[in-house]
Design goal:
alpha+beta; two-stranded antiparallel ribbon; 36 helices; PH-like_dom_sf; PP4R3-like; ARM-type_fold
Length: 818
Amino acid sequence: MTDTRRRVKVYTLNEDRQWDDRGTGHVSSCYVERLKGTSLLVRAESDGSLLLESKINPNTAYQKQQDTLIVWSEAENYDLALSFQEKAGCDEIWEKICQVQGKDPSVDITQEVVDESEEERFDDMSSPGLELPPCELNRLEDLAELVASSLPSPLRREKLALAVENEGYIRKLLELFRVCEDLENSEGLHHLYEIIKGIFLLNRTALFEVMFSDECIMDVIGCLEFDPALPQPRRHREFLTKTARFKEVIPISDPELRQKIHQTYRVQYIQDMVLPTPSVFEENMLSTLHSFIFFNKVEIVGMLQDDEKFLTDLFAQLTDEATEDDKRQELVNFLKEFCAFSQTLQPQNRDAFFKTLSNMGILPALEVILGMDDVQVRGAATDIFSYLVEYNPSMVREFVMQESQQNDDDILLINLIIEHMICDTDPELGGAVQLMGLLRTLLDPENMLATANKTEKTEFLSFFYKHCMHVLSAPLLANTTEEKPSKDDFQTAQLLALILELLTFCVEHHTYHIKNYIINKDILRRVLVLTASQHAFLALCALRFMRRIVGLKDEFYNRYIMRNFLFEPVVKAFRNNGSRYNLLNSAIIEMFEYVRVEDIKSLTAHIVENYWKSLEDVDYVQTFKGLKLRYEQQRERQDNPKLDSMRSILRNHRFRRDARTLEDEEEMWFNTDEDDLEDGEAVVPPSDKMKSEEDLMEPISKFMERKKLKDTEDKEVLGKSSLSGRQNPSFKLSFSGSTKTSLASPPQSASLNPGSPGSPGSPGSGARSSPPTTAVTTKGGLVGLVDYPDDDEEEEEDEDGESKEDTLPPTKKSKLSS
């Protein structure tokens, strides 16, 4: 490029608030697809590389200075400047920016966000910062205005933060606060509220450390009590000093740790209760406050974790029977909060934390706590247990299996969890839902370990089904002794739905363990009692349980279902539902549709044979008629297995072979036939000969040959035939030693078995009786002719009147004579 009008220097503001020259190039404006908007591009004049690619944002404040300078902020703490060689080039780009933002190019700034001089900002790059007014009562209004005007600009925010930090301004402001409060100077207190709130939004850690120090934090909270938008000031300090009490459940000997806990609580209180809810624009300005609290919590967890005496005393008092209930509740609440703090740790630190708790005996302690009567204590213990299960379920499983060797089933930790789930007094079963989720995690094979020496899945599932499954299923078995649920209130239905959800999960993931349990305890029959519940969600849970079992297509399950007629309650529920189009109706139909589509033969036969009368009048879906058709096809195949095998061959090959290949094979077939056969050769060759030759003869080639002949002669032959009332003629093949082919019409004709047309040596293939047919005589080469019935009805008619005759010889080895 040689156009000097667009020649520019690119500047960026560095971390030290100094302008860095990024290079010299030529600027242009064009639409960039990747950025989805018009952008400024600067390419280096030396090598054409891209120095700058900046989308013109409609909301960004661009400022034009000295006729050749454009300055803007690309992002927080990232400022850019273009210095043009010529005024004309600056005007062109400025007009483009104003056009995108819909502004008049005569303005010097496109967005009125701050009242500051960008000329000073660019010219005086080494400016030390803002000059704050003296910290006096009569200047508080000026200071409040300065803080408010500085917040929108990253540069001015930075300068203001430096000025407040360097001049120790916060302590001076807090001294003024005490004076204003003593004088009851409401106007001054309102200005101080705005100033302190603005300092929070400066988002600077160094300022937070001063504000949250022991000598300053209560005064900072005091300043934030006097919100000018409220008619009366808040009483935050009164709450923190009188209402909120710090309890040392275990004495903390480290003063630094105690101070850190106090500080974290108060800062968290400021964030949650004192500061007004930040706007969308202010939220990012409080990120440093969030980080301050986060790192404080990490530090507290680390210091407590390193204090072995503290943790030892904690667990000793938790498990000591002499500990008072109130004291134990405080200890459990502390441990719960301790675990909650641990969620802020990095993964490796969290590993060390839970390993420390495990070594201290947290699981035996939880077992003791969960056995207590206090509902609040048990609730806190459940929360702690959930942290452990989510972190390391294998650790919990290992502990449970080890304790089973020493304790009875009733006091096992996992059985305590199940009992609490069953006995949850909450009408909505909130606690039971939480506990069911924990049990599901413990029973999930996906998070179980497998090593060379042992398989956790096998060991734990064997333990669970031996020691715990009877506890889980007890409410289900107790409530399903009759044809209808014994108790059908809402809370019981909710509990049974949770148990069924867990059992359904087991069916999907536990294979033979749950299969043995279901079949031995007749669980499915009990579950299907719940289809009679008045609560639709419970009936659907029972159907879902059976649907998962059917979906496995396991013949053990299928035989169990058929042996106990377990589709009966499903059909009964379907009939009782009537014509209502609801979820129950759809779920039942979907189950039968699955059996039909997947062609589960045993269940299809069982359903049609036992329940067809109840289902045959359902015509708004074709599912049940389709099941009946499947059943009839299945019976037909059982009665004539050769029919099924040949249809399979034809279905697989009928249209897949090349026509030329067929012609070659047909010619070979004819040649081989005439060369090999001699006059007077036996009609039925020995079985071993048949088997050896059968390997060389593909049934499909013979079928295609006969079909070809049939296509050319059917009209001619069948047009002349007298069928004596029959719709489908069948043909008798007579054989002699002649080279002629003769189709005679003796009193009884043999038709080839339609199950294997022309199949050489087919065992059991025999001639069947049929009415006389028209004689057809063909001279010359051998011709294979066979009836290929496409209609199943013909086969049934043929079977009714058939009489066995001598077995036909293979058509390939046959010679036909006139």
